[in-house]
Design brief:
The protein is of the alpha+beta class. The protein contains twelve helices and 13 strands. The chain has a four-stranded mixed sheet with strand order 8-11-12-13, with helices on both faces. A three-stranded mixed sheet has the order 3-4-5. A two-stranded antiparallel sheet has the order 1-2. A hairpin with a 2-residue loop joins strand 6 and strand 7. Helix 3 runs antiparallel to helix 4 and helix 4 crosses helix 7. The relative contact order is 0.09.
Length: 316
């Protein structure tokens, strides 16, 4: 019974009023309101499936409602819950750790269709690919099978701009600014670059292999003394091998970056081909992880060694 020490989270369900509401707890509480045949969907399903970047908040840090999808809409308003009525096929639903969810592909498509902008839809898809929840080919097939659905055109547009190897939402915005606003590139996301002897030089956030321009996003931790020292060493390494560097600073006014980006391209055009001492050709000993298919194919021990930073545990 709801009172001084307990709070109702759904009909017949209560929890201690002073218990912290983690994102996972919010998802569980919302799931109690699901009718038979429905499922948790969107960002919440992707979080439950292991999506590191789906933390249930918007760009301002405000909590997002947990989306529930169902065949019927006879549900009253509930704080922190978004009820949606859409077609559901048996293959769209799954169960994990006791929760009924829509599949990763269906959940990604839901978020993309209802995203505020195409750029937001690209971020959703890229970050789902980050944890190998979907691939671009799987999403393409889902879009082809969902013609006429609300927001499907936006999802289709976003698919054309998506990538499978972005490592953070900030990197996605960085790429869209570079290719969409400046209309330069195309660029690769986090490609390993090697010297001519096959030694790994760096894995930059973005790289235009035709122009030889490296792009790095500098978040707040890059201003710490130790990190800045490492960045300076990295800058020297980049330029010593005939690459041109441009940095995007967190919170920076986009116009300033765009000016530097175009200057970097101008400098790269003046660099003789003989000065370019780098290659994208991977040595036989290198294990590629640039695509969803490559990462899914990794044996467990290599997945743990190479992709540990992508887990929810690492993000905590």
């Amino acid at each position: 019974m709801e009172g001084r020490f307990w709070r109702a989270v759904a009909p017949g369900w209560f929890r201690p009023i002073d218990e912290p509401a983690s994102v996972e707890q919010r998802i569980v509480e919302a799931s109690y309101r699901l009718p038979a045949g429905g499922g948790v969907t969107g960002w919440a399903a992707l979080r439950w499936l292991g999506g590191r970047w789906f933390d249930g908040t918007d760009a301002t840090g405000t909590g997002l409602p947990v989306p529930l999808t169902m065949l019927t809409s006879n549900r009253g308003h509930a704080p922190g819950v978004l009820y949606t009525k859409e077609r559901l096929r048996p293959q769209d639903l799954m169960q994990l750790h006791g929760l009924d969810l829509t599949t990763a592909t269906r959940s990604v498509l839901f978020e993309m269709r209802y995203a505020a902008t195409v750029g937001d839809a690209v971020r959703v898809l890229d970050m789902a690919c980050f944890n190998d929840l979907v691939s671009l080919s799987e999403l393409s097939s889902a879009i082809d099978g969902s013609k006429g659905w609300t927001g499907i055109r936006q999802a289709r547009d976003a698919l054309q701009l998506a990538a499978e190897n972005a490592w953070s939402p900030a990197e996605v915005g960085f790429r869209l600014l570079w290719t969409g606003v400046a209309e330069l590139g195309p660029v690769l996301c986090n490609p390993p670059i090697f010297d001519l002897n096959g030694r790994h030089l760096l894995t930059p956030d973005l790289f235009d292999p035709v122009a030889g321009v490296v792009g790095e996003y500098q978040g707040e931790h890059h201003f710490e003394r130790g990190q800045r020292r490492r960045d300076i060493t990295r800058e020297t390494l980049i330029r010593d091998h005939g690459l041109e560097l441009v940095e995007r600073v967190a919170g920076e006014e986009p116009t300033r970056f765009l000016i530097r980006l175009r200057s970097a391209y101008a400098r790269s055009r003046r660099l003789p081909a003989s000065e370019r001492r780098w290659t994208l050709t991977q040595p036989p000993s290198w294990t590629p992880t640039e695509t969803v298919a490559q990462r899914r194919a990794l044996p467990p021990h290599l997945r743990k060694a190479l992709l540990a930073n992508r887990s929810l545990k690492d993000a905590a």
